[in-house]
From TrEMBL:
Assigned EC number: 5.3.4.1
Name of the protein described by the UniProt record: protein disulfide-isomerase
Topology versus the membrane: Multi-pass membrane protein
Reactions listed under catalytic activity: Catalyzes the rearrangement of -S-S- bonds in proteins
Record domain EGF-like: where: 138-180, 292-335
Function statement: Protein disulfide isomerase. Promotes the localization of acetylcholine receptors (AChRs) to the plasma membrane.
Pfam families: DUF3456 (PF11938), EGF_CA (PF07645)
Organism in which the protein naturally occurs: Anolis carolinensis
Length: 413
């Protein structure tokens, strides 16, 4: 037979195979029997789809004959096979390739004797599946029999496949290796040859003879049977309860809880500061309660907080040294909390004293230059003023202050 792959050029085929080799998470994990089951199911769908098709159409006698020919033709088989596997389903395509000869064999020779294609291919030919009610490599019978695996109240692991453990996973309410009994907390409400009805016991009963609270035969963990009733065990008074050192035990229905003691306690018998065994550091007993000690109470006579401008603040179980009002902590020290004063800065505020001196000299220099210019024009009055100014400048230079300035200039400032 011409396989559907024969039409594909080899280069394209290898490319296609390479593409199909890429991991396909949906198909790679599938159980082999299920792959075959899907393949067989798609094959049958293909047969249905092509049932009314033929080479042409119509219903004349000649065409009826043609239809009969088509029904078992290679053309129809190829058409069916084309739709069996999705292109991306590697497992299906691989299985189809492996099964090619078998499928052909069935199509042309075995159809009549073996009408069940799934059984023929997946169970008999490929040995990927077992018949229903059997499991494992050798198709063992499931517990409870192949007719009614797990008594009809559970799932036999690996049922119908060549895998699985064959163990029964029972439905809720059913139990035992064959799911033929009622499970924990359930009783037989009805039973006949074919059916078992299990109903739930009264809440804490592990085993019971009926639905009533007084029909308990065994109790669940944390409960105690008394007069066919289950009563809660108070674990807190017994060895059964295990709570940590600074916790106390609270009984609950069927169990117990451990809760943390109050902050005021070292060990406790219950919730709150009045159930302390011992008072915690920073607390002292006042009657029955452990109350917070106000460490700041003696602050006036004997200061607790000794830092400058500090104040004491009492807290639950301790105290804190904070900065007194109007002070804030900066680098660990309480400093006066002044809002940073930001006066408007004048243009000359950034100018240093030395620069002022230089500016003064430039100012005087400019005046002397101006006077010198006017004096050069021959104006007697300005000449006199110029000479006076030079004399005044000379006096100025000789003063102590100008000595210092000169010093500065000599040093290269
Ligand atoms: C067994 O019980 C079920 C439900 O309780 C009932 O449907 C069925 O007919 C009974 N079968 C026989 C054989 O009594």
């Amino acid at each position: 037979m011409a396989s559907p792959w024969n039409k594909v050029p080899p280069a394209l085929l290898s490319f296609l195979l390479l593409f199909l080799w890429l991991p396909n998470p949906s198909a790679s994990q599938q159980e082999p029997c299920q792959t075959c089951r899907d393949l067989a199911s798609n094959f049958l769908k293909g047969l249905e789809r092509t049932q009314r098709e033929n080479f042409g159409g119509g219903n004349t006698a000649w065409e009826e004959e043609k239809l009969a020919k088509y029904a078992n033709s290679e053309t129809r088989l190829l058409e069916v096979l084309e739709g069996v596997c999705a292109t991306s389903d590697f497992a299906c395509n691989q299985l189809l390739e492996q099964s090619e000869d078998h499928v052909e064999q069935w199509w042309f020779h075995e159809q009549q004797q073996h009408p069940d294609f799934f059984q023929w291919l997946c169970m008999d030919a490929q040995k990927l599946c077992c018949s229903p009610g059997t499991y494992g490599p050798d198709c063992h019978t499931c517990p409870g029999g192949a007719q009614k695996p797990c008594s009809g109240y559970g799932q036999c692991d690996g049922d119908g496949t060549r895998g699985g453990t064959g163990l029964c996973m029972c439905q809720t309410g059913y139990g035992g290796p064959f799911c033929s009994e009622c499970g924990d907390g359930y009783y037989e409400a009805a039973r006949n040859d074919s059916h078992l009805v299990c109903a739930e016991c009264y809440r804490a009963c592990g085993r019971c003879s009926g639905p009533e609270d007084s029909s308990c035969l065994r109790c669940k963990r944390g409960w105690m049977l008394h007069d066919r009733r289950c009563i809660d065990i108070d674990e807190c008074g017994t060895e059964m309860a295990h709570c940590r050192a600074n916790q106390f035990c609270v009984n609950t229905e069927g169990s117990y809880e451990c809760r943390d003691c109050a902050k005021a306690c070292i060990g406790c018998m219950g919730a709150g500061p009045s159930r302390c065994k011992k008072c915690n550091k920073g607390y002292q007993r006042d009657g029955v309660k452990c109350l917070d000690v106000d460490e700041c109470a003696g602050e006036v006579e004997e200061p607790v907080c000794t830092g400058a401008n500090e104040a004491c603040e009492n807290t639950d179980g301790g105290y804190r040294c904070i900065c007194a009002e109007g002070y804030v902590r900066k680098d660990g020290i309480c400093e006066e909390d002044k809002p940073p004063d930001a006066p408007e800065k004048g243009f000359f505020d950034d100018i240093t004293d030395d620069e002022v001196v230089v500016l003064q000299q430039m100012f005087f220099g400019a005046i002397i230059c101006a006077l010198a210019t006017l004096a050069a024009k021959g104006d007697m009055v300005f000449t006199a003023i110029f000479i006076g100014a030079v004399a005044a400048m000379a006096g100025y230079w000789l003063s102590e202050r100008s000595d210092r300035v000169l010093d500065g200039f000599i040093k290269g400032r």
